[in-house]
TrEMBL record:
SUPFAM superfamilies xrefs: Nucleotide-diphospho-sugar transferases
InterPro entries: Glyco_trans_2-like, Nucleotide-diphossugar_trans
Region entry Disordered, spans: 315-337
Molecular function per GO: hexosyltransferase activity
Native organism: Stenomitos frigidus ULC18
Protein name: Glycosyltransferase 2-like domain-containing protein
Domain Glycosyltransferase 2-like stretches: 7-146
Cross-referenced PANTHER family: GLYCOSYLTRANSFERASE (PTHR22916), UDP-GLCNAC:BETAGAL BETA-1,3-N-ACETYLGLUCOSAMINYLTRANSFERASE-LIKE PROTEIN 1 (PTHR22916:SF3)
């Protein structure tokens, strides 16, 4: 029988963090054992990850807890995509191995999915902890003015990705519960999304075109910022801003999102790039191909400026309003009347 929810945990060499996360799940899953399964996607860890999984398997009892171990490290994005592509459950929660989740969150997720089984996407609002600063940001990263029920997926996704954190706000894996079949279609539609650091924004954006979204007002977890290796590599950060984010935006346009949304997201993302202008020398110094990187930035700036000039004559503005006052989108059933 198909389970309602798969909790998929991609991991690599974080045995101690995985130990804590499995302890949280073992406590939270009581009462939902028949509807859940837990699979750890081990990206060829060399620490005690497999021993941790074996230790917890007897504890889970009636719930499936198993491990899929890659024979080699296939990269973080590919490992994440693997967990989604292999899921047999109706929904898939991609849960990070180190992200603290509030008590009672799994119960809320299960109750919401049971009540709204046709959701395209469930977003859990969250705050952030910056490890390098040892500082907590208590602001919610997703908009909080949505009705606490399913709303129009496409419009809600536009609000989220155009928020202050742009693409970063919609690619936090632990905050995202995917409708599995929609995500698998997205992966088939753009298989190279696994090569893009922001590719998850396309997966979630596609899910939003297929069904309603529920965005929680309450915070349910914390995004731990600064522990991933890529977050400290400025070349990767520059690539995300100059190549990956624009590419994601163009792919979202292909599935029906307006050009104006793409332009705003790209401009805001590039704005964050120039915020780091004081570090420009340290950005350029390690690059062998820095002229290409800077040319990419310039090209997208010219694209944005050119689009602004040509927009009245050559681009069709979406008729859908994105003003905050229009947040009562209604459910799919109400819109179909």
């Amino acid at each position: 029988m198909t389970k309602l929810l798969l909790i998929a945990i991609p991991t690599y060499n974080r045995a101690s963090q995985l130990q804590t996360q499995l302890a949280w799940i073992a406590k939270e899953i009581k009462g939902f054992e028949a509807d859940c399964e837990v699979i750890v996607y081990d990206n060829c860890s060399t620490d005690g990850t497999q021993a941790v999984i074996s230790e917890w398997q007897p504890v889970f009892g009636g719930t499936t807890l198993k491990s899929v171990r890659n024979p080699e490290n296939i990269g973080g994005m590919r490992n994440l995509a693997l967990s989604l592509s292999e899921s047999k459950s109706r929904f898939t929660w991609t849960l990070g191995d180190d992200d603290p989740v509030d008590e009672g969150t799994l119960a809320f997720v299960m109750q919401t999915l049971r009540k709204y089984p046709d959701l395209g996407l469930l977003y859990l609002n969250y705050s952030a902890y910056y490890t390098q600063l040892d500082q907590m940001n208590h602001d919610r990263w997703l908009p909080t003015d949505f009705e606490q029920q399913p709303v129009d997926g496409k419009l809600a996704f536009q609000r989220c990705i155009e928020g202050p954190y742009t693409v970063g706000g919609v690619i936090f894996l632990s905050a995202t519960i995917f409708r599995t079949e929609f995500t698998q279609t997205a992966l088939r539609q753009w298989p190279d999304s696994v090569k893009n650091w922001g590719g998850m924004a396309f997966w979630t954006g596609y899910c939003a075109t297929q069904g309603d979204i529920f965005v929680t007002e309450a915070k349910h977890l914390v995004c731990v910022v600064g522990v991933s290796k890529w977050e400290g590599e400025k070349k990767i950060h520059t690539r995300m801003l100059s190549k990956d984010i624009p590419e994601v935006c163009f792919k979202l346009q292909e599935i029906g999102y307006p050009h104006q949304m793409s332009r705003r997201v790209i401009q805001r993302s590039l704005g964050s790039y120039f915020y780091w202008a004081r570090d420009v020398l340290s950005y350029l110094r390690p690059f062998k191909d820095w002229p290409l990187e800077m040319a990419s930035v310039g090209a997208f700036l010219l694209f944005s400026l050119g689009a602004s000039v040509l927009e009245p004559n050559k681009l069709k503005e979406s008729s859908e309003s994105l003003e905050p006052s229009a947040m009562s989108y209604g459910t799919a059933q109400e819109r179909d009347r």
